[in-house]
Design goal:
single chain, 295 residues, mainly beta, Porin, 16-stranded antiparallel β-barrel, 2 helices, 17 strands, globular
């Protein structure tokens, strides 16, 4: 166990001073006027896994389509909706969000209600974007969208949000604090409840120039002590057009590393955005070659 923890910490520290690939989250505007914007998204992610233990190669894919609309009803009230359809290795993914957002005239308070990202989910990239389709293992440890409400307050030093949501007929409470200190942006999120009332998640995201890193701690009880899982995850990437990334995780309950992948990325942008990447996945003992294009 000590060796595994040491390996995890060394890998995390290797990119601690450097930090996700921030690909252009570019959607093209289908229609717009002074109050309504409608955008669309399309992405194709394909990768090949080259085994390092035997002569074999497995091809995988992820196709995703989406659309979003934002209607500014008046200066204090807006409506937001998004729909995403994806197909990954024969499995389908459907996501639909629809919520209202109200703000006070001085912009200090906000209230959101509907099916949407929870306060803790806000540090995850939106699924209908390039970053969302190429989301890291560490980011996906945090919860996804749910039916609920959240209230926010803007301060001079940052923004604080609290929310409640329904997930699997169980209440989920979450919070999100964000602040900017010189060139460093920090986001701290926490979640309690959800699929099991004892579930708990904590995340810290940090951005500074070409540096992005996120730490996640997740504890799942799954209604039985024997099924308890405690996972820590770390993702870090540094660079601009060329990036180095590390995505790692350690399960404190099973003393195993469900995730350890590192490699390099070449980003490109224009009419079509995307990346070419090559990494090594220690869990599958394979080299991963990625090609990702999106609008």
């Amino acid at each position: 166990m000590k060796k595994r923890i040491a390996l995890f910490l060394i890998a995390a520290l290797a990119t601690l001073f450097a930090c996700q690939p921030t690909m252009a989250q570019k959607t093209f505007v289908v229609d717009s006027d002074s109050t309504l914007d409608i955008s669309a998204y399309a992405g194709l992610l394909n990768w090949v896994e080259f085994s390092t233990e035997k002569i074999s190669a497995v091809s995988r894919y992820d196709v995703r389509l989406g659309a979003a609309a934002n209607w500014q009803i008046n200066p204090m009230l807006s409506l937001h909706t998004a729909t995403i359809y994806g197909r990954f290795e024969g499995d389908e993914m459907r996501t639909n969000n629809f919520y209202l957002k109200a703000k006070t005239r001085n912009q200090k308070w906000s209230l959101e209600a509907g099916r949407m990202t929870t306060a803790a989910t806000e540090v995850r990239p939106a699924p209908g974007t390039g970053d969302g389709q190429f989301e890291t293992w560490t980011q996906s440890r945090l919860p996804n969208s749910a039916l609920g409400a959240k209230i926010g307050r803007n301060f001079k030093f940052g923004t604080l949000k609290f929310g409640v949501a329904e997930r699997d007929r169980t209440a989920e409470f979450s919070a999100h604090f964000t602040t900017q200190i010189k060139q460093h942006q920090f986001n701290l999120v926490g979640m309690l409840g959800g699929e099991d009332y004892q579930n708990f998640s904590l995340g810290l995201a940090h951005k500074a120039g070409g540096l992005y890193q996120i730490f996640v701690y997740k504890e799942e009880n799954k209604n039985a002590p024997l099924n308890q899982e405690r996972i820590i995850g770390y993702f870090g990437a540094y660079g601009g057009e060329y990036q180095f990334y590390l995505d790692a995780g350690y399960n404190l309950s099973t003393e195993e590393m469900p995730r350890l992948e590192f490699g390099g990325i070449k980003n490109f942008s224009g009419i079509i955005n995307g990346l070419i990447a090559l990494g090594y996945d220690n869990h599958t003992k394979a080299l991963h070659a990625y090609l990702f294009v999106h609008l």
